[in-house]
Amino acid sequence: MAKKNLKGFFITLEGPEGSGKSTQSEILCEFLLDCGYNIVHLREPGGTKLGELIRGILLNTRNVAIASEAEAFLYLAARTELVQEKIIPALASGKIVICDRFADATLAYQGYGLGVDKKLLHKLNNFATKSIKPDLTLLFDLKPSTGLTRLKKMKGFKDRIEERSLIFHNKVRKGYLDLAKKNPKRIKVISVEKQNKQDVTKRVQEIVTNAISKNRK
Question: For the chain, what is the mean pLDDT?
Fold first, then answer.
């Protein structure tokens, strides 16, 4: 089922750890609700009973020995469930779906970050998502060192992914930026290195409002 055959609008938010995308996704949902849109707010991995169980496995710091390929398959399994249980019905009913991470994350983290074959991951992503792709992706970009420092101050602890080396996180960031270069119409890069939250929010709302307006014409 191709996205073009669905009536809704699909927005994803991506970025390295500590980029503020989760906060911005919540603010965006509130903004769009205030504008009168019907919203479904989701996160990856998660959003379904199976997805939340998988999330617990993937982020638990005790599960350090998960093979890279197994990690990829776990994310893909959670995504498959989310697409079929939540995303397809929401888009079919004309709702705006906002998802905190999606298929680009697998390419960035498991592909660029862990070295899993990217062409294979691309094919598996298409299989897992029934080839559904976001209409718009917001990529919040900053240096991983900055993001990880922010997280430590905010949470005081790290999950299994956040615990990985700075080399890994730099590869993830490079992956995201490479994906943005390859998909400039869909992926809009928002630099959050020096901007405050209010300025980032304003930019997000400008991009999203413009994209939705064009889609509805």
Answer: 94
